[in-house]
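Encode chain A's predicted structure.
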Amino acid sequence: MQYKYLGDNQIKISKIALGTWQFGGQRGWGSFDISEGQKIIDYCIERGINLLDTAEAYGESENILGGLLKGKRDKFIIATKIGGNNFDYNTAKLHLEKSLKKLQTDHVDLYQIHWPKMKHLWHREDMGRKDYENIFNAMTRLKKDGLIRFAGVSNFRIHHLKEFSNEALDFIVSNQVPYSVLWRCYDVDQTAEFCELNNISFLAYSPLAQGLLTGRFEKNTEIQEGVRKANILFNEPLYSKALEVVKGIKNIANQIGATPSQVALKWAMEKEIVATLLVGARKLKHFEENVKAVDINLSPEQINHIDKLSLEFQKEHLLPTLELWIGNCLQEDLDKYGLKKPW
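Encoded structure for chain A:
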């Protein structure tokens, strides 16, 4: 396994990590086989994968993970997230204590704010000055309490991050964001550049664009209702355009004897801003294939070609203000694609 450091060389994590949203058995993923989960955890130990990411919003994920880690907690860096729209110390501590109980541990290594408040979402209001102060105060106190080691955020754009004090930015080590060949909004809107300047690393989730970059989807593939149908990339007019990019990934995969998934993952993990790729898995065999992406080589020419395909798709077809999930986007942005929110 290969490793990178989070933030300012504070914590070393594997370039591929296990994302456990699928463990939760909700939001369209279906039930989860616990025995398969145990195989995946054991495989992580075998391959040196040391970061596991979950969240209180991921259904039963924290509970399941806690059970799977009995006797193995010391092998992993555990990251989880607080949901909701209250970030004061007392509220954060209450949420964290519930997560710790489920995870069967006395601390988490990385505690993250799952989403910034956005008034067009369930929060009904945008982040205010007090919210940024509360996040910093809560995280610093939770660290002093010994309940967390590091603090991070998730889905925060540059206009959010700029509202933190310099002291808070020094404290935050990560920003968990969707990042893939098919999703470069955080590059285009300069969030990535701001994070690099402030030693904030990306934990890249959905690095395979929810399976779109595996190459197994075609123009006539029926997209089932559920998680993928809620993803803007699986809806026209973007779906057809995305498949054109996937063709380019397939071509490179054929050239080097790898899978499209491995090529897409290798490209992403080579980005300086990306500390790790959060790869989800319901089956060990799929996870094993993706982990092998660490071992393949892409030439500078191949990396540049993918980068070109990626940025052309982003700039020509995606508004930089879009979110990956239809329900989280501004309706004014969705109107440009003929899409509507699911609520």
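The chain has one domain: 3-211+260-296.
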